[in-house]
Every structure is written in structure tokens, then in C-alpha cells.
Amino acid sequence: MLRLWRATINTRNGLAFAIRSEQAVREELFALALSVPLAWLIGTTTMRCVELVAAVAFVLVVELLNTAIEKLADRLTLDRDPKIGQVKDMGSAAVGVALLMAGLFWLFALAERMGAI
């Protein structure tokens, strides 16, 4: 139980730090909060609603990992290093792919709701 409690505290601390320090995390949390009621309007089934919210939550997960990579890279050096720049770009690309996936899920669900599929 102690391990679970410590993990919970670490999770809260990490999320709180990310919210304080990263605009993208705040925006994605807002999108996640907005996605819950919108998913119930757009989703045709309960499972589709869950999938839509999960797609937005996945973007947040990838953003948190990208933020961790960037913070760690900045801790190593603030000098311009092409290799670190490539690592940061890959993290950014991961967020971009997650956003694209979420967008496609939502577009598919909207088309489904409108009867186009």
C-alpha cells in the first residue's frame, strides 16, 4: 500500500509541475475536459464515446512524455546541440502523430453521427 501511495503522490506532483510549466499540457487538459461532454453528443455508442475521450487522453499522455524528454534534455545542457535538437523534434513528432490520430478518430465519429458512414 505504501508503494501505491508514493506512486500516487509522484503522479500528482508530476502532473502539477507539467500544468504549471507547460502551456500545451494546460491546453490538452482543457481539450480533455471538453471532450467528455462532446463525446456523448457525437459518439453513437458508449464505446465510441469512451474511444473519443481516450484518444484525447492519449494526446495528453504523449505530451507529458514529450515534456519529460524536453525537461531532461534542457537539464543536460542549454547549449544548442544538434543531437538533442533531433531528440526534441522526435518527441514533438510523437505529439503531432497523436494529435493526428485523435483528430481522425473524431472526424470518423462525426461522419458516423451524420450518417455518412
List unreliable stretches of 5+ residues: none
How many domains? 1
Indicate the mean pLDDT: 95
Structural class category: mainly alpha
Let me know the largest β-sheet.
Answer: none
Q: With helices defined by DSSP (H or I, 4 residues minimum), what is the helix count?
A: 4
Transmembrane segments: 52-69, 90-111
Pfam families: DAGK_prokar (PF01219)
Family: Belongs to the bacterial diacylglycerol kinase family.
Binding site for a divalent metal cation: 22, 70
Structure description:
By secondary structure, the chain is mostly helical. The protein has one domain: Orthogonal Bundle (Helix Hairpins). The protein contains four helices and no strands. Helix 2 packs antiparallel against helix 3 and helix 3 runs antiparallel to helix 4. It starts with a helix and ends with a helix. One of its GO terms (biological process) is phosphatidic acid biosynthetic process.
